[in-house]
Automatic annotation (TrEMBL):
Gene: THOC6
SUPFAM superfamilies xref list: Quinoprotein alcohol dehydrogenase-like (SSF50998)
InterPro entries per record: Quinoprotein_ADH-like_sf (IPR011047), THOC6 (IPR042626), WD40/YVTN_repeat-like_dom_sf (IPR015943)
Assigned GO CC terms: THO complex; transcription export complex
Keyword terms: WD repeat
Protein name per UniProt: THO complex subunit 6 homolog
Source organism superkingdom: Eukaryota
Length: 179
């Protein structure tokens, strides 16, 4: 990673990695930061047998906010931020393109600001992406060609921090079971 200016050095000094995901092929690893950057590293071993962590590409999300969650499907990387989930094909990401498709989350009428997305989970059997939000809701997003939000339900009074799979169902924490 080449740091061209003092501004770049300040960003790196204050950067936090908030999320990570590997590519479907397992050769690349993506990190999401608090500044909205996605760094993609090529995972290779050098001739000396040590890991060679070189930055393959860097992308910036289309709107302000950190990259709070990353998840990979068979050919796309999904990045969650404040009020939206952006996605890009791994092919375009590795080519250095920033042509993100953005799915905006539904906003409750009471909300004054957009909720951050803390966690993502994909349910392949229904081709749905679930987003756990800081306002206590869980949004369901279609991964079909429409790529739109299909619903949202209130899961907790507090933030929902994590989603995980339990068989073919999603589980979010604090515990909420989706049947």
């Amino acid at each position: 990673m080449q740091l061209e200016s003092m501004f770049d050095r300040r960003i790196v000094a204050h950067m936090s990695v908030l999320s990570a995901a590997s590519s479907p092929c397992g050769r690349y690893f993506a990190f999401g930061t608090n500044f909205g950057f996605i760094y993609v590293f090529l995972l290779e071993v050098s001739d000396e047998g040590f890991p060679d962590f070189t930055v393959s590409t860097t992308s910036k999300l289309p709107y302000p906010g950190g990259v709070y969650s990353l998840i990979t499907s068979s050919n796309r990387l999904y990045a969650a931020s404040v009020g939206y989930v952006a996605n890009i094909s791994w092919e375009n990401l590795l080519a250095g393109k920033s042509d993100f498709n953005v799915i905006h989350l539904p906003i409750s009428r009471r909300a004054l600001d957009l909720p951050e997305v803390n966690s993502l989970a994909i349910l392949e059997s229904t081709n749905m992406l679930y987003a756990a939000c800081g306002d206590g809701s869980v949004a369901s997003l279609s991964l079909n060609a429409s790529g739109r939000s299909t619903g949202c339900f209130k899961a907790h009074d507090n933030s929902v921090y994590a989603l995980s799979k339990a068989g073919e169902h999603e589980v979010c924490g604090p515990p909420v079971f989706i049947f």
